[in-house]
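Anyone else keep sequences and structure tokens together like this?

Example one:
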Amino acid sequence: MNQKYCFKSYFSQQCTQFWDNTKIDKTQKYTMEDLYYIQTPLETMPCNLRMNKKNLIMEQDDRQYSTNVENAGLELITSDFNNDQGVRITKGNYTFEFFGKIKSIFDQLKKTSIQFNFTQRYTIKKMIAKGTFATIYLAECKFTQNEYAVKCFEKRQISNEKDKKNLIKEMQILRLMNHNQLLTIYEVFENSSYIYFIQELLKGGDLHEYLERSEKLSEVKVSQIIYNLLNGVQYMHSQGVLHRDIKPENLILRQKNNLNDIVIGDFGLADIYKYDGNYLYRRCGTPGYVAPEILRGQPYDYKVDIYSIGVLLYILLSGRRPFVGKNNQQTIKLNEMGDINYDDIECSSEAMSLMKKMLESQPENRISILSAKQHPFITNNVQKRESQKSKNTLKLDMKCIAQQECVSVSPILTSRPINRHSLMNNFTIHTPRQLPRLSHDVKAIAKTESNDVHRTTISRQSMSRANLRLNNQFTNLQVFL
């Protein structure tokens, strides 16, 4: 029996037909292509299907059809005639079903479409964090036992059209991200009460937590953090996206204590760059981290993220924030003025130079990402990191050789010389993965989904936390309307 989900999707599309009357560019590259078949009570018809980003293209009888499947409904189904596995795509009141070897095309479709069977696919294990609009859970896939972070939005909390548009925008932006330093989203599910983002599980905690319990970082380590963030932001900007909320709490360590692998998360305030400045939220960010031009109501571009990284660099080098007021309003005022005290910061001249260039109050004078990556503070420390890495590798290899000599080699048993090169080539380091110690009653979620399902025979074609504490001061995440 196939399941038909009886609720109106948040992403339901108004359309007068399933296939678009658009001209197909025959020179475009496809992410996949294969032969499938369409089934009706009277006949079975072959069709060739291709995927190109968000478009599904069908070739049949020397004709081509195209449709945009972004946020279309996506379901796995079974043929009523021969039990073959198939796919159902829903757009508005229209559906399209096809059958065959569907794994590869389904994997492509789920990156851009909306599925409805979350509780059949995943088990929620524990709650990780709770925000205003969303709760983050640790979940396990029932089929692979892989763990994921699930960002769960309760629909009744998204009460107005602006919040709904912001959620859709966040999902759209996350789907564009494909970089090691940026959060990965795998698929999206929906039922009558919840929307679920299936995301990469980052196990190391956020940078703010790390800084609170650690000693001051060396400039070599600081430069590595900044360099990696610049790489991630450079890719983000190449996709036309501004983050607008880069801060320690939104920078997540992929593994515990590994500062070399930090991921930029929480794209709730991100937006696609618009030349006319017509953003859903125009004046937004976290007080103390926002580029001054945003607070001044001036036009802004990608350099707002450079400023936020500059604030982070200031914190990493000084151990304090550049803008600390008695309350949010005073912090915002100081942030808007952009006057920063660089006194008593013990750092190299190269570090001071880059920090000041990134924290230029006027965006036209602010350093670009490319120039920042080529700044001596970054390039000189890259050389130091590579040199230190080589020394550490040599020390580790020699230690291994010594252990091998003590344990495995006895002059009484052998007189042959030791092959040090062979020992070094066979040496491997195994690092155990860190797992989080993360409980939550999920009966309500499971009950909601079961109530959404109406079984029928088909025989027709058819957050993040918002507080930051440094020097006993608190700053709340705010959206300035």
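And example two:
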Amino acid sequence: MGEDIGGVRPSSASLAAGSLARGLQLPGSGLGGRGFCYPDSVVAVTMFFSEAGARPRTWEASPSEHKKWVKVFKACDEDNKGYLSREDFKVAVVMLFGYKPTKIEADSVMSSVNPNTSGLSLEEFLSIVRKKKEVQLHRNEIRHIFTAFDRHYRGYLTLEDFKKAFRQVAPKLSERTILEVFREVDQDSDDLVSFKDFEYAMNYGRNEA
């Protein structure tokens, strides 16, 4: 077994995670090797995360992107109220992300509004947009990794796909360890890892760290 990390002894599958993450290099992605900035976890399903102690990568909007967000805010605030109403916010999301937010999402956002104001201020709007952008980028990176290992474009990963990935970067890992990792990621135990399974594993590990 490996040494304790933060008072918790990692599982063999978790140690396999670090090995794969350190060796993995994916073109066109900020993930892999030293550039792999998501945190490792004692949860084995975070097999594509970096060493323990690393923090999630932060993202900052460029000046031009920040300017675009402000422009959208002003465009949706047609009456120059200084804030966005519920409907204004929905339009802004469509303009920036290309989809209409659900009632649940809109309710969640509006419930977080400062009670002393009548709507979403520019500062609150920019904070929400930045967080949504981070989530969007994170999901895109997960998709990039999944696609890299789905060499046959089937829309799912098999145990053999996992074995091939580990053989490339951590050939000394046992079959038992690889199987343990695969089973933890395979949420519905159908011997196939869908993107939904894979995304859940990645996000679960990120939240656990």
